[in-house]
Every structure is written in structure tokens, then in C-alpha cells.
Write a structure and sequence with these properties.
binds fe (ii) ion; Jelly Rolls; four-stranded antiparallel beta sheet; 195 residues
């Protein structure tokens, strides 16, 4: 039996208590990031089957999304695995989020929306930055400000992350973007495909 220094249960407890305090955004991100950094620094805290692509278990063999916690206060915690060459194009989230990398690394491209959102189906995005997010790193999804990204695993190994959101993304209307076409397409997630 392996001993972890900060268990998933402890993380859920600390994050739940933090969310229940209804902190302002700065405190939420500061404290939440510190908790998540502790968790992802010990990958053993997450069951190994939640750190691997779904394979024959899932619709997308090269990807994995596993529910770790969903609380009555809305707190949603999942493990998301990107297999080699896995890719997800630009999309938004419309709520706060924390993403921490556990195993391997991910290339995350961030975008800023330039239009005033008044034309349905139209979106003008500017590529803001590209980050190599490494094990132990946490990136923030800040509603309205910095929450549009694209994910790519350019490596030959699986990348495992922990995603933390303020609410269930299922049923929430969000957008996918096509930079070349300057288009936004609404979509609603029905599963825990929340990344
Ligand atoms: Fe995402």
C-alpha cells in the first residue's frame, strides 16, 4: 500500500470548505491553487486507472475523463487524460477553473476574444500565449477574462491532469471556436467531457 502525503479526500475536504466560504476570486485562486499543487505533486493520490487513456472503456480510446468528486455545493473534480497527439480546439468554460498537470506535460494555447460578442455565431480570437504546462503546474480559468484555450499533447506519452470547476459543466451552454472562419458554435456537454 502506498502512502500519499496529501490524499484526494483531504483535497476534496479543503476545496469544499474553501468553496463553502464563498471567497472572492483572488482568495479562491490562491488557496485553491495551493491545494491543487499539493495534490498533483503526488500522483499516487489518484488511482492509476484515472491517469490512463480510457482505451476500450471509453468512446475515445486515446482520451480519458474520470469523475473524482461532485459536491452539493457544485464543486466538480475530474481527472482528464490526453493520449499522444490528443487535441482539443479552442473552447470556453464560462466558470472558474483550476487545471493541474500530474504526469507528463500539455501544450496549452490561450486566446483572447476581440469582438463584442454581439453577432451570433461570430467570434474574433487573438492567440495570446502558448504554455508548456508541466507536472506540478496549475493554470487558471478566469471567467470572462482568460478562459479560452486549446489543448495539445505533442508528446508520445499520456498526460494526466486534475480539473477543478465551480460547477457541473453538464448542461452549460459553451462555445467552440474556429479561428480561420471567425466562428463560434454553441455546444452543451452531456457527459463529464469537461475540459
Ligand atoms: Fe478546457
Amino acid at each position: 500500500m502506498s502512502i500519499v502525503s496529501y490524499s484526494l479526500e483531504e483535497f476534496v475536504h479543503d476545496m469544499s470548505r474553501l468553496v463553502d466560504e464563498h471567497p472572492d476570486q483572488e482568495r479562491l485562486f490562491n488557496k485553491g491553487s495551493a491545494y491543487l499543487e499539493r495534490l498533483i505533486n503526488d500522483p499516487k493520490a489518484i488511482p492509476e486507472e484515472c491517469r490512463l487513456p480510457a482505451g476500450s472503456r471509453g468512446r475515445n480510446a486515446n482520451h480519458g475523463t474520470y469523475l473524482l468528486h461532485h459536491g452539493a455545493n457544485g464543486l466538480l473534480i475530474t481527472s482528464v487524460v490526453w493520449g499522444p497527439d490528443d487535441h482539443l480546439g479552442p473552447h470556453d468554460h464560462r466558470m472558474w477553473g483550476l487545471i493541474g498537470v500530474m504526469d507528463n506535460f500539455i501544450t496549452e494555447t490561450r486566446f483572447r476574444r476581440q469582438d463584442d460578442r454581439s453577432r451570433e455565431g461570430f467570434a474574433q480570437l487573438e492567440r495570446d500565449r502558448v504554455n508548456q504546462v508541466k507536472p506540478g503546474d496549475v493554470s487558471l480559468l478566469i471567467p470572462e477574462v482568460d478562459e479560452i484555450h486549446q489543448m495539445d499533447n505533442f508528446s508520445d506519452r499520456a498526460t494526466a491532469e486534475i480539473h477543478v470547476y465551480g460547477n457541473d459543466l453538464r448542461g452549460l451552454e459553451r462555445s467552440r471556436f474556429d479561428l480561420d472562419a471567425c466562428s463560434a458554435t454553441d455546444f452543451t456537454t452531456t457527459r463529464f467531457d469537461n475540459c
